[in-house]
Write a structure and sequence with these properties.
With 143 residues, the protein is an alpha+beta fold. 35% of the residues lie in helices and 25% in strands. The chain has helices spanning 23-26, 45-55, 63-74, 91-97, 117-132; strands spanning 2-6, 15-17, 30-34, 40-44, 77-79, 86-88, 103-109, 112-116. A 6-stranded antiparallel sheet has the order 1-7-8-4-3-5, sandwiched between helices. Strands 2-6 form a two-stranded antiparallel ribbon. A hairpin with a 2-residue loop joins strand 7 and strand 8. The longest helix is centred in the last third of the chain and has 16 residues, at 117-132.
């Protein structure tokens, strides 16, 4: 499970060093793609495969499912981290997420999210009050 927030920097070649705590789970390769809220989602290859299997079970007659699959997969990029735990974020994905030099890398359970640091701080500030004031069930049976 991926947990925590880290602050790596994007280097001049568009690479980041993945947090050491994530290294073992991501050593066999990662798939990164567009995420929601203009961040990037990073999955271990096997988790991405499981996610794809679930998504492709949606009916092909569903416009929303087709559009989600197109956006999700068309931006996907896979690679294996090097010995220094570096991965390259392709220019199109950097542009999509508005990534500058300072980043926020979040562990969110089954995936990692990469945010521009300023965008993450803004998003967090906008959602913290809502998080604190949730009164109903968010996840059925859990929260």
């Amino acid at each position: 499970m991926f947990l925590g927030t880290y602050s790596p920097r994007l280097d001049e070649k568009g690479r980041i060093i993945l947090p050491a705590k994530f290294a073992e789970d991501l050593a066999d390769g990662v798939v990164m793609t567009r995420g929601q809220e203009r961040c990037l989602y990073v999955f271990a290859r096997d988790e991405f495969s499981r996610m794809h299997d679930r998504i492709r079970q949606a009916p092909v007659t569903s416009r929303d499912a087709r559009n989600y699959l197109r956006v999700f997969l068309s931006g996907a990029h896979d690679e294996t981290p090097d010995k220094q735990r570096r991965v390259t974020i392709p220019p199109a994905l950097r542009a999509y997420a508005g990534l500058e030099r300072e980043l926020a890398v979040l562990g969110v359970g089954d995936r990692v999210e990469i945010w521009d640091a300023a965008a993450w701080e803004t998003h967090l500030a906008e959602t913290e009050d809502a998080f604190a004031s949730i009164e109903g069930e968010v996840v059925p049976g859990i929260l």
